[in-house]
Write a structure and sequence with these properties.
alpha/beta; 5-stranded mixed sheet; 13 strands; binds fe (ii) ion
Length: 313
């Protein structure tokens, strides 16, 4: 049984990976905050019913409560209702029990922890979440909890099993952070210890969890999935599900990997009408060129984090 959508056109937006950071941190790029604020101003003008935020709201929220607080304040000031899930820069990476190929990144130390997931939920709202708005179901979850053994993993599987029993709407939009896969839904797992395969491991969800997640999506009548994390825009349709890898507002990554991939900074506006959901990419009206910055990129080890550099003490 598929419910009918309401006839009045309306819109929502999807944004992710703003990663503005803070001048109280060991690293900071003002341009990332300026780009976030440019996107927010454009979203305010669109006046959507709400904003879906697909993770990486912060640059190092995994380490700093103050980044959560500053971001929460900016979202409150924006005044657009939002539904958020975390990303790895907010709460920690997908788990590994092996050190990866790059010695300057201690992958096991980057594994997410339950306490940070709880902290994120206490500031930005509980997740996973699902609701129906004007005939469209929206669901958000941090899929990278799969395979962790954390309490949040058991919670997610139970949530998804329940979701699959609910009546289907015509459209069901899912917000994830990691991509379900890199090139092909059925691709084998990537080897974290191989420097050629590291990014494939880092950006996607591994089997067998990927297959179970996708099966549950299909059982729940999911029609459209947004994922962030990669910062390169491209899309595919698998078994009738529209899967969108999205851009960041901060900086592009791995654009050369995807044929037709586009690293242009921006977000998605989605218009909902009687005929369905039409997504339009909205590029940032202005890209900040502020060259000031300090601190290292990537996932620096604790010894590389020098808080004496912070502009705000
Ligand atoms: Fe990410």
């Amino acid at each position: 049984m598929v419910n009918n959508p309401q006839p009045n056109p309306w819109s929502f937006v999807h944004i992710n990976d703003t990663q503005a950071g803070s001048p109280r941190s060991y690293r900071y790029k003002p341009a990332l905050l300026e780009n976030e604020q440019t996107a927010f101003a454009q979203i305010k003008k669109i006046n959507p019913d709400f904003m879906l935020f697909g993770g990486d709201l912060t640059r190092d929220g995994v380490l700093h409560d103050f980044e959560y607080e500053e971001m929460h304040e900016r979202l409150t000031r924006l005044g657009v209702p939002y539904h958020a899930i975390p990303g790895n820069t907010d709460v920690g990476n997908k788990h590994t029990d092996k050190q990866g190929a790059f010695a300057n990144r201690r992958d096991i130390e980057c594994n997410m922890e339950a306490g940070r997931l709880e902290k994120f939920a206490s500031v930005f709202g509980e997740f996973p979440w699902t609701f129906v708005h004007k005939g469209v179901r929206f669901t958000g979850y941090y899929e990278a909890v799969v395979g962790t053994g954390l309490p949040q993993e058991a919670k997610l599987w139970a949530f998804l099993e329940h979701l699959s029993t609910l009546p289907h709407e015509r459209d069901h939009v899912v917000v994830n952070h990691y991509a379900m896969f890199i090139d092909d839904m059925n691709e084998p797992n990537f080897d974290i210890t191989d420097n050629e395969q590291y990014l494939g491991w880092y950006f996607g969800i591994s089997l067998p969890h990927r297959a179970r997640l996708f099966d549950l999506m299909k059982r729940a009548g999911v029609t459209m999935v947004f994922s962030g994390h990669i910062h390169c825009r491209c899309s595919q349709v698998v078994d009738g599900v529209r899967l969108y890898k999205t851009a960041s507002t901060g900086f592009p990554q791995w654009v050369d990997h995807f044929p037709g991939g586009d690293g242009t900074l921006g977000f998605y506006r989605c218009d909902v009408t009687e005929s369905g959901i039409t997504q339009v990419f909205v590029p940032l009206e202005k890209i900040s060129t502020d060259a000031r910055s300090y601190g290292p990129g990537g996932h620096p080890t604790p010894e590389m984090r020098d808080y004496s550099l912070a502009w705000v003490k």
